[in-house]
Amino acid sequence: MFGLLLALCWCSLVCTSRIYMGMHSILDVIAGFLYSMLILVVFQPALEIIDNFNLTCAYAPLIIISLHLAMGLFSFTLDTWSTSRGDTAEILGTGAGVACASHLNYALGLMPDPPLMLLPFSPPALTAGLVGKSVLRFLLGILILLIIRAVMKALTIPLACKIFCIPCQDVRKARQRMEVELPYRYITYGTVGFSALFLVPCIFSYLHLS
To answer: Name one Pfam family in it (predicted).
Structure first.
């Protein structure tokens, strides 16, 4: 019940903020909510099948990347630039990166499911050492992801401009072009999502912060 209440509160805050910022109308929010419920009804029974496919199928990463990229191309068919296009590309890229990282973790046996005899987990004693370690993990993880994001941003925007022969003197204007925005957002945040679930935990393990 606590999780459900938290989800409802978060959903309400997001919907309200979109209306307040003028990004969506009330009808947009209602339609989005109903569409989300439809997706939940259709996909919830198949989540276990989809999850097993993502983890075990050898071609899952290729299918995941292709599917997310195709959805990104479909959502980028607007005549004018909109912040929603960038948001959509970030979400799709992050989702693809996380799914590919999950597949790799499973293939390498890095994040196995705990034995049933260990469930449910009991919380450890809250000590100063545990709090310090948690804060260190959080700050280090955020720093790594910010660095990765900055590096990928610096690489992908000029590269996309060069490939599609788009002037990149005005980076902000160049980013509004679909040919630049799609690869920049998708590749950058796909790398961030992959790093958050694979690279950062590996670094934590190497530094004995797991």
So the answer is: PAP2
